[in-house]
């Protein structure tokens, strides 16, 4: 989802798929958190952001591609990362995703 200007509806937009650089991974995002600050921007309650804005915060998905410097066993692994777009983060900063909510809910 992309916000072209504050107080406007979010729209779906296709973007070119980036290629990971040395020591980086590409995450095929399957879930994404949105910060309350982003919602204030979407609602037009805060200053207009640099356009376009992709409201997002933390992502979860699978490693779709990797480059030199990243262990091959990471390919297709579930990972989660606290980041904002556009961001390039070295692969060692990514952690395996929690496989269930049991550890969060105590079930």
UniProtKB/TrEMBL annotation:
Coiled coil: none annotated. InterPro entries: ADH-like_N, GroES-like_sf. GO terms for molecular function: alcohol dehydrogenase (NAD+) activity; metal ion binding. Its cofactor is Zn(2+). Signal peptide: none annotated. Residues 23-80 form the Alcohol dehydrogenase-like N-terminal domain. Keywords: Metal-binding, Oxidoreductase, Zinc. One of its GO terms (cellular component) is cytoplasm. This is Alcohol dehydrogenase catalytic domain-containing protein. It comes from Alsobacter sp. KACC 23698.
């Amino acid at each position: 989802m992309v916000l072209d200007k504050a107080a406007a509806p979010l729209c779906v937009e296709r973007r070119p798929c980036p290629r990971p650089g040395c020591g980086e991974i590409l995450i095929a995002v399957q879930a994404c958190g949105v910060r309350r600050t982003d919602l204030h921007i979407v609602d037009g309650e805060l200053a207009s952001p640099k356009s376009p804005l992709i409201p997002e915060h933390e992502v979860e998905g699978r490693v779709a591609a990797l480059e030199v410097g990243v262990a091959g066993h990471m390919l297709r692994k579930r990972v989660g990362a606290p980041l904002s777009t556009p961001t390039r983060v070295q692969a060692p900063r990514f952690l395996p995703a929690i496989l269930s909510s049991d550890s969060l809910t105590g079930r």
